[in-house]
Specification:
The radius of gyration is 26 Å and the shape is elongated. By secondary structure, it is mostly helical. It starts with a helix and ends with a helix. α1 runs antiparallel to α2. The protein has 9 helices and no strands.
Length: 269
Amino acid sequence: MRTNQLIKYTLFVSCYLFWVASGLMVAVGIYAKLSKEASAVDSLLADPSLILLTVGILMFGITFVGCTGALRDLPVLLKIFAWILLIILILQIVAAVLGFLFSSMVLEKAAFLMGKAISGYRDDLDLQNLIDYIQKKFECCGVHSYKDWSQNIYFECQDSNPSLERCAVPFSCCIQKNQEAAITSVLNSMCGYGTQNLRSWKAESLIYTEGCLEKIVGWGQRNLLLVAGLAIGLFFLEILVFSMAVMLIYQIDFIIHKRKSTRRRGPEK
């Protein structure tokens, strides 16, 4: 008598795929952390490589427990895996409900974290590349507007600021007139110099003046079905994996109980 092989190996393959993905995340996180200047950023929330590394290690550990438990039919590991997965599912539901009920607070927190990221723009290469990617991707600049870059000590628009980048914005805020020409030509990293001194109606011909927070929220609203579909799909995948783990646990426990009862009957005969 043995467990259902379809459930067993479907659970194993599911955990194995996530395990491999988490291993890649850990590898990329370690490479990113080692390839940049040491002690550049101390905050976890401001360092993308640390976030990637932390999430990757957690996923690696959880999925490894699931893989081993499913492959070796170990109920202890499967129970640990199921309980962790149940806690994650509950936390996701709570986060979704709180995010819906306190959406304004979530936006305020997001604005605070984005402002903090702007402050550390020149201090961390990973963070700098991430911000540049977001600003180019969403064609935006700053959190709420391009003048948010005054929160950074290098771009602060004050007469007392000795930086050459005073009143400037990063090159990723600049509007590329001709995308093909921009790819082949030399990048003008000084294209945003002095733009914080300009009025928005004048600056909008040179740089993106809208904030990234509004642009990202707008993108989410326009692609609500896609975002919701991906979130719901991932949620139901987690429920499916959790259900398979529970079914496998019950099958293993039933087999163990059956074998024990058979052994007890043996001597009586």
